[in-house]
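TA notes, week 10

Several of you asked for a full example with nothing omitted. So below is the full record: structure tokens for the whole chain, then the designed sequence directly under it. When grading your own attempts, check the secondary structure regions first.
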């Protein structure tokens, strides 16, 4: 398991690696994904180093989901994915719990 000192997302929370911050609360931090699958692709991470969802204290989970909801509202797309991977076989590459909020814009979202 990655240590807190070495964890990429813990470094982002501490400001040791720059990120494009969206919303920050006392328990969560959110920012734009460096390699977006769609414009506005965001990540929401708890300010607690747990690798997988089942290791995360409930209070952090309870804080992160409303942050994801606010981002989805701000993105303004009626179509989006909320994605959370656990374990390398399930395509988790960064060993710190994170939620992807990925807009799926329709043609009408792109107008204007
Ligand atoms: P996973 O596959 O682990 O669920 O997703 C990890 C996500 O973290 C990927 O979408 C990847 O683009 C993103 N990511 C990896 N390193 C960085 C980084 O240094 N900064 C930001 N903003 N996103 C990152
Ligand atoms: Zn971490």
């Amino acid at each position: 398991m990655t240590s807190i000192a070495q964890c990429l997302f813990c470094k982002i929370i501490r400001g040791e690696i720059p990120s494009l911050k969206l919303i920050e609360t006392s328990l969560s931090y959110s920012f734009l994904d460096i390699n977006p699958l769609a414009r506005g692709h965001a990540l929401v991470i708890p300010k607690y180093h747990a690798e997988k969802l089942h290791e995360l204290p409930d209070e952090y989970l309870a804080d992160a989901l409303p942050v994801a909801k606010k981002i989805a509202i701000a993105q303004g797309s009626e179509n989006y994915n909320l994605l959370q991977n656990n374990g390398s076989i399930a395509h988790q590459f960064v060993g710190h719990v994170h939620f992807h909020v990925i807009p799926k814009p329709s043609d009408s979202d792109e107008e204007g």
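The pocket of zinc ion (ligand 2) is lined by residues 4, 7, 9-10, 49, 96 (CB under 6 Å). Use that as a sanity check on your answer.
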